[in-house]
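Researcher: Please translate sequence to structure tokens.
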Amino acid sequence: MFAIIKTSGRQLKVEKDQTIFVEKIDKNEGETITFTDILFINGKIGTPYVENASVTGIIEKQGKAKKIVVYRHNPKSTHKRKLGHRQLFTKVKITELKG
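Model: Translation complete:
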């Protein structure tokens, strides 16, 4: 059994006991989170969401992804710019699919 949820502007296919990485959610590690924007579960297709359906998970970790280096160079001058970015993420383990 699987479900398709919408979170952080993305759609994810999730199953029970699966670990997913989503954008940072303001909760502490060990807390429970419930996703209510369910697009598909048990053969039911939502219009746009399935009513009375939810996916529950436990937050395992809050962290930062690997650094992405952004480099900009203008070849006709000596202008160079180098930046780094580390995206914040939340690691969630799916515990229950209801619906």
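Researcher: Any highlights?
Model: Residues 5 and 11 are 6 Å apart (CA to CA).
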